[in-house]
């Protein structure tokens, strides 16, 4: 099973880190005591983050515009499109790495509210931009206890409410992990389609292909979590994305937040305020 994490830049060099954000980051609270913090947090999330003992430092961004190479295969059978899979994986990893590099510039303990999205531009119709965003945060005690095992900022797509509950339970995020698989579902033959007319029956070819693709994505996400020395993954989702490759090529994307247990002394005290859920009754 191929894994595509930990990719270097083209030519085997280090991942390029753009300098365009240096001026913005230099004026944030993470780099300048007189600076202001920036974030994509709501007011409620900002308040709850403070109750958890963290402060926001700055809004961090990573981006990669990627061109997908040529994929060759036999279209009459189920198969993974490895060229496309690798492209989708590497582009996201580059965006995530650059976002994390911005957090490192701010000496952050972590990044909360990570979002991954894709977009196209009219001047690059054969290219996709992968954008990763989040809010860099720092623990008020300043001991670095909540950082990932590699000593760098953790990444997490958890909401502030779920982040608070995780800390209250004595755990902390390690890394936003993902696994992906771009898969081609074989076309049905004419005779096979005719035999199914008016019949209730499982379409085994489609079931097997979708099952295998989903399992590959989940297994790769799980392998990423093991590699960063986490104890488990919370908030797992599996999305199906069709993109621009045609009706029989589909991407399965599995994401979640890998977590680890903290020592008992780092657990939030029982006297900490508990997040409340308000259910509106308006029609």
Describe the structure.
There is one protein chain. The chain is of the alpha+beta class. The chain has one domain: Translation Initiation Factor IF3 (2-Layer Sandwich), CATH 3.30.110.70. The chain is built from six helices and eight strands. It has helices spanning 22-26, 43-51, 82-105, 160-168, 190-195, 204-227, and strands at 54-67, 79-80, 110-121, 124-139, 154-155, 171-184, 232-241, 249-261. The strands form two sheets. The protein has a four-stranded mixed β-sheet with strand order 1-4-3-5. Strands 2-6-8-7 form a four-stranded antiparallel β-sheet. Helix 2 packs parallel to helix 4. The chain is globular, with a radius of gyration of 22 Å. The N and C termini lie far apart (50 Å). Residues 1-13 have low confidence and may be disordered.
Report the CATH superfamily: Hypothetical protein apc22750. Chain B
What's the main sheet like? 4 strands, mixed
H/E element order? HHEEHEEEHEHHEE
Q: Report the CATH topology name.
A: Translation Initiation Factor IF3
Mean pLDDT: 83
CATH class assignment: Alpha Beta
Distance between the termini: 50 Å
Helix fraction bin:
25-40%
Q: How many structural domains does the protein architecture include?
A: 1
Instruction: Please tally the helical runs, counting DSSP H or I stretches of 4 or more residues.
Output: 6
Q: Which range does the strand content fall in?
A: 25-35%
Compute the number of strand runs.
8
As laid out across the biggest beta sheet, the strand order is: 1-4-3-5
> SS-based structural class?
alpha+beta
Could you say what the CATH architecture is?
2-Layer Sandwich
> Which regions have little confidence, pLDDT < 50, spanning 5+ residues?
1-13
Using only C-alpha atoms, the radius of gyration works out to: 22 Å
- The shape is globular
